[in-house]
Amino acid sequence: MKRVLFVSLLLVLVLALAGCATGAATEEPAAEEPAVEEPADEEDAANDIELQVAAIKQAIGRLPDGYRLVLTLYLLEGYDHEEIAHILRISEATSRSQYLRGKRKLLDYLAN
Q: How far apart are CA 29 and CA 23, in angstroms?
């Protein structure tokens, strides 16, 4: 169950990042631009997702310890900032700021 949740969260993150990278997370493609074609079959789609998951895991691994811990506890484990603050013995404000900074750094790593 945790693996399914983890993969689902990573997929959501990948889709969100794809939207950020193109600048059109919720917008329809412009009429003059051709729509991005879906992979030809399910196997190609699964391979694409596996590559994206691997890239996200690698980028998370590159984060500084504080950012990585807070990001992992919040996104993957489902803790709120109050719980994270208690677990890590930091303030809630520190938890929130490390989460936002970690998320920004993660997006930068994935964009490059």
A: 10
3-state DSSP call for residue 90? coil
- Convert the pLDDT of each residue in 40-52 to its tens digit: 677 788 888 888 8
pTM assigned to the model: 0.60
Tell me, which fold does domain 60-112 have in CATH? Answer: Arc Repressor Mutant, subunit A (1.10.10)
> Hey, is 24 helix, strand or coil?
coil
CA distance 42 to 65: 36
Instruction: Round to whole Å and give the CA distance between 63 and 67.
Output: 6
In 66-81, which positions are buried (b, 16+ CB within 10 angstroms) versus exposed (e)?
bbbbbbebbbeeebeb
Q: What percent of the chain has pLDDT over 90?
A: 45
User: What span, in angstroms and rounded, lies between the C-alpha atoms of 94 and 82?
Assistant: 10
